[in-house]
Amino acid sequence: MRWFVSLLLITLLGLVQGLSSTGSRLLVVIEESSEKAQYSTFWDDLEGKSNNCRGYKLTFESPKNDKLSLFQHGERAFDHILLLPPKSKGTSFYTITGDVDLPSSGLGPALTPKLLLQFINQNGNILLTLSSDSPTPTSISSLLLELDIHLPPDRDSLVVDHFNYDTASASEKHDVLLLPQGSRIRSDVRNYFGGDGTIAFPRAVAQELGNSSPLLAPILRAKSTAYSYNPKDEAEVVEDPFAVGEQISLVSSMQARNSARFTVFGSAEALENKWFDRKVKSVDGRDSKTANREFAKQITAWTFMEVGVLKVGRVEHHLSSITGDAPGNDSVAQLGYLNPTIYRVKNDVTFNIEISEYSYDQLTPLKVDASDALQLEFTMLSPYHRLDLVSISQTPNSTVFSRTFKLPDQHGIFSFRVNHKRPFLTNVDVKREVTVRHFAHDEWPRSWEISAGWVWIAGVWITIAGWVAFVGIWLWSEPAYEQSKGKKMQ
Amino acid sequence: MAVEVLEPFLKGDTGRNTRGLLRLIILCTIAAAAVASRLFSVILDPWFNFRATKYLVQNGFYSFWDWFDDREASHPVAQLVYEPRKPAEEPKRTRTWHPLGRVTGGTLYPGLMVTSGIIYHVLRFLSMPVDIRNICVLLAPGFSGLTAFASYLITSEMTTSPSAGLLAAIFMGITPGYISRSVAGSYDNEAIAIFLLVFTFFLWIKSVKNGSAMWGALTALFYGYMVSAWGGYVFITNLLPLHTFVLICMGRYSPRLYVSYSTWFALGTLASMQVPFVGFLPIRSSDHMSALGVFGLLQLVAFVEFIRQQVPNKQFQTLLRGLIFVVFVVSMGVLVLLTVSGVIAPWSGRFYSLWDTGYAKIHIPIIASVSEHQPTAWPAFFFDLNLMIWLFPAGVYMCFQQLKDEHVFVVIYAVLASYFAGVMVRLMLTLTPVVCIAAALAISSILDTYLVAENPIPKETQANGQATSDSIKSAADVIKDSLRSTRNPVLGIYSYVSKASVVGAVTTYLLLFVLHCTWVTSNAYSSPSVVLASKLPDGSQHIIDDYREAYYWLRQNTPDKAKIMSWWDYGYQIGGMADRPTLVDNNTWNNTHIATVGKAMSSREEVSYPILRQHDVDYVLVVFGGLLGYSGDDINKFLWMVRISEGIWPDEINERNYFTARGEYRVDDEATPTMRNSLMYKMSYYNYNALFPAGQAQDRVRGSKLPAEGPQLSTLEEAFTSENWIIRIYKVKDLDNVGRDHGSAVAFDKGNKKKKTAKRRGARVLRVE
């Protein structure tokens, strides 16, 4: 039997060789198969024909293909989608919602915004590339509107920057942006897109991210001198640009609540072979090679779940006794079995959670930045405790975080909750319900242990003793009948 | 020989024995009739009590005492033994009061469960393995037999007539006023409490009569049992002191009274404090203060009596005056001090609502919202008590005629209970025993007078009258010349015609009474609330079983831990039949928690949704009678939800907003926006239009036409609607996966395209990272 299991495992290992933690079926939507060749290096990188084995199984489909379907038997037919912009205007024939009035520029019946959204809701990841050369399909723009990502209203808008452009290829138009790799959007956010290289962004489409959705995060922003304009209508003067400066997001991300990832890549051209390894010249005259190839790898790796994926291992909680004042968890001893369903108020309880981070090809221990913290809530309606979890041990693949604390003096149905949501990291929301009960009748201190009660206890016993004494005296003292009658009244 | 045996039949020693045996047989027959008349239909309700009893039987008394929630898998205290052992497979979750949990042992009256538990164990000891469920079902009928017996005892204390007790027993056995709470399967506290009430009163009268510490102690014992069984024990707590107080005021203080009251008060108070739910209430709450006050008064009176025997009369007057003054000042001072400092709790709301019927409606809507706390309608008295309601005053009048200590008790009881029964429907139950007693006194005196075959012999009566008049002192001796009819001693009836007609009339009345009781019991009090029956036009019976259908759906189609929110009336049923945790149930004392549910129901979706999320609600259940014309639905209860939540959040909920400008409560086109946007309204009428041709939707309860366009729901989705639309269950949606609000997500799903924000107005909102 054992050999069979191991054989099965080996077979399975052979099947699952891709790097992505969720799957390797990648659908590339490309309208003209002739354009495929322009991106050949990109495809090779994804398929892993070179030394690094990323192992995606690419399926190239045209949106016009009637047989294309994202779902089969209600399940996703692909794990990831890469959407390349259609080349020409008005080629598609279906509108998304059946609104006949709109200029029809959809992506076909298989890629309506509803289906794309359903794909996200079923944990599929989408990398969307835009191009200023071709109009954005209405299907895409209405999907982006739902996600609170805004594109310029004019079809041909692109981003220019008169201070950061490639003087070699766009000395006139200034529309090939040169941007350094590796700016992190916030100091407390993990940077998966770092590096020293320069990225060339030819003819990019600006995106503007809405302010309300916490799921959105820009990956690459334009420099403060950039702006978006329409070369046809606004060739002479731009009065009210769609977006300017760092508000322009060239690559933006949306990580849904189920951790599905959706990335908008502002310039499809930047993924073409010609920009992968090209000499560019910045305004101040420095020559450099583009790092587009590496950046493309970073973007696809993040979007297709190769990095920034957190995995929760064992979640345990138990009753503990604190034996000494040694630091950390050394002084904590476990009482009872693991994960009981009921505690009592004011118990000392330890909560452990094991978290790993998937990084390209392996699970690594999660490291929490010093400026950030992994927090545990003990909550009923609202948190009664919100505590930083401390890393107590590490295995090669995971970190164990732990915290010992005293339960609040309130009975009810509580839950241990670790709700860790950070940009670029998948969401961790672990909830373990436990009951916290009141003191049982025999768990209170006995009356004589309470010094304030001694008075009353003494009172009780004195009364009893006095009564017994009185009864004794009453029974044994024979009344002297010869005496005067007045004595009887006692 | 035969003549010798026959001659003393019903007269001498044998006669007494025979009569005793007959009486016993009659009492047993009455008890059997009482049990039998309660077996029309059986449905176990409330479920919670049954579950608690099951827990008690399975886990023992101490575990029941410390019971936190109703996980049936494990024994909570067993966890204290820290042995590493495998945790039981996923235990059942708390079913009540999610997420606050219920300290069950400390928040219920355990008497009912403990009684069933004891019966269960006794029967098992006798090698009669009976399922605990059968005990629970038959407990109320069984105890009603005992109640009949207790009313026989108490009535026999009132009068020498042997028939009065038997009449009282049969009245008590079959009167609808009592059957309403004690049909088979009605497993509520009242099932045993009425027996305890009557029996405690019997013991009290016995102890007052005899001045015996033993009877007083027995009174205290049964009083303690009563406290452990029903919150209505406060009635006894106040009635006995009142009786004592009235006796003292009538100048009837006696050492008998002193002994019986002091014994009862001391032991009874101690006994009542042993119930965790009552705890220190007897010395801290105002409801119990009268008992304490009368106890103190009694001591003073006894002391004064003692002094009067010692001190000459003149000095005694001065002393008495001084004493009364000092005692009054001191006791008032202490009372005020304690009340101000908060040691004595102020009167509870239920108490105020007893005196001012409008009080509850304004201040504590949660009490007023319960249908059995409504004032009683007049026909209800006749419905529940039939002929006894007009015999009742006659019986009370007869008590006045004799006016011994025990008759004073009946008079006080009658006055208080009739007032309370008028205030609350529920308290009809406490009125019933005294009505039975008084009616039995009246009827028995009629029968005793008219049912004598022989003609009275005036001369003999006159002659023997002097000898016997000591024992039966007629009112004529006490109240001189008050009524002409009482001036001469009562002799009897001569005419057979009048005898026959009166007896015939009374017999007819009694037979009608039996008919009425049977009819009421079978038609009004034996229909289970979860299954509705209706008659089809052809006369056949049609069963509407929506409740069970819906509960079964919940049980089969929702995850084990799914939390169900509904109005509290359905909490027990969901917990019992659907086996799912609920937010509030019929026994939730936490007003805020109920108000939270009320707020969620009566607010807009945007307000309700965070509340639902916070409480982990998975499903919301509403009862809607609009299709069938079932008037007990949630829209009709809705105003109570509004009022209760208004009590907690007066800024957010305002009852006025649910009424139209003309002050009408409407659901049609003229309903206010607040009403139409409330979650309850939306859930009730969601998709209801689809049943009717366009614009024809009709609500058959409110009898109004509904708006042409039905309400839209975005944060909930319809999960289940029962056959007759009585129960509608909605699932609470999760947060939108891509961060939209529910409104726009629903709009997107419907295919409404979002308008592009073509030209922005005003300043740009910049994104700051």
How is this structure best described in words?
The complex is a heterodimer of chains A (about 500) and B (about 775). Chain A has seven helices and 28 strands. Chain A folds into three domains: about 15-305, Rossmann fold, CATH 3.40.50; about 310-435, Sandwich (Immunoglobulin-like); about 450-490. With about 500 residues, chain A is an alpha+beta fold. In chain A, β16 (about 280) and β17 (about 285-290) form a beta hairpin. Chain B is mostly helical. Among the domains of chain B are: about 205-345, no CATH class; about 550-750, Rossmann fold (3-Layer(aba) Sandwich), CATH 3.40.50. Chain B has 33 helices and eight strands. In chain B, strands 3-4-8-7 form a four-stranded mixed sheet, with helices on both faces. In chain B, α9 runs antiparallel to α12. Classes of the chains: A alpha+beta (about 500), B mainly alpha (about 775). The interface between A and B is large, with 62 and 50 residues. Chain B: It is an enzyme of class 2 (transferase). Chain B: It is found in: Endoplasmic reticulum membrane. Chain B: One of its GO terms (cellular component) is oligosaccharyltransferase complex.
